[in-house]
Amino acid sequence: MFVSSYRVTKFALQNFWRNFWLSLITLSMLLLTLFTINLLLVLNVVTDRAIALVEDRVELSVYFYDSTQETTLSSAVAYLRGLSQVRDVEIISADEAYQQFIQRHTDDAQIMASLQELGENPFGPTLVIKADQVGDFEMIIDALDNPQFRDSIREKDFSDYQSIVERIQSITDRIQVFVIILALVFLFIACLIVFNTVRIGIFIHRDEIAIMRLVGANNWFIKAPFLLEMVLVSFIAVGITIAMIYPALILIEPQVDVYFGSQSAGLFEYFTQNGLLIFGGEFLALVIITFVSTGMAMKKYLKV
């Protein structure tokens, strides 16, 4: 068994080097396929992170009249915090709202002059509400129509972040479709190259195969080198991909993080945590696909 395995491995390596340029082309196409697949994963991670960041910043500001009683405000806060869709409620007092307004418009002389003419704080307390999901705000706005405090509410301000999320998702979906089509094209070309590589290998080794038959070699021993060669090519392709993807992520991530402010896109962390699953799955998929192409070529040209 050991001798047979050694010989199969030896023949597989010989096939690889004898058809080096075809093997190199096959390897290149598999690399391009893996590159597009991992690009799709990077895109998904960045998109999910961007949407999560946008949703985290979505908030609903509820402005109360300055005459609102403390008990009414407390009742509204307790009611909102009791809703499962509400993640957090921040209370901004009238004085805090006044100071924030001054800080925002300190360079606007006209607004500051108008504020001084009033001679008093025109602001009432404000509630800043954050929801678990963007879609929950519609329900929260409806819930604010509670008769206990609806008459004390002067205004509700909700920026429509839903359209931003939908726009990000729409752009990402179009890019994903393009990347998937590109990956399928590369994969199809790789399968054709594998098919022809095996066909040429069978032609080159036709004398050796004939001798193997004469000395009683079984079908497995004749077919195994071609299958093992494709496993070797798939392994090299995944290995090169791993060697390239992590340095690339180290270079790319700081550029992507610029758009996320103080937070990180988490690309390197994602591939580190899921590397075994990602690259193990890609290797297994390549082996299966190349085995199918190799099997079809052997069935057509290798009569054993």
Describe the structure.
There is one protein chain. The model has no long low-confidence stretch (mean pLDDT 77). A four-stranded antiparallel beta sheet has the order 2-3-1-4. It contains eleven helices and four strands. The protein is an alpha+beta fold and 304 residues long. 73% of the residues lie in helices and 8% in strands. The chain has helices at residues 2-18, 20-57, 70-81, 94-104, 109-118, 137-143, 161-204, 206-214, 219-257, 267-273, 275-301; strands at residues 60-64, 86-92, 126-131, 153-158. It starts with a helix and ends with a helix. Helix 1 packs across helix 9. The chain has two domains: 2-54 and 164-301, no CATH class; 59-158, Alpha-Beta Plaits (2-Layer Sandwich), CATH 3.30.70.
Strand content: 5-15%
- Pairing-aware structural class of the strands and helices? alpha+beta
Distance between the termini: 21 Å
Biggest β-sheet strands, sense, barrel: 4 strands, antiparallel
Total DSSP E strands: 4
Subcellular location: Cell membrane
InterPro entries: ABC3_permease_C, FtsX, FtsX_ECD
GO cellular component, one term: plasma membrane
Domain FtsX extracellular: 58-145
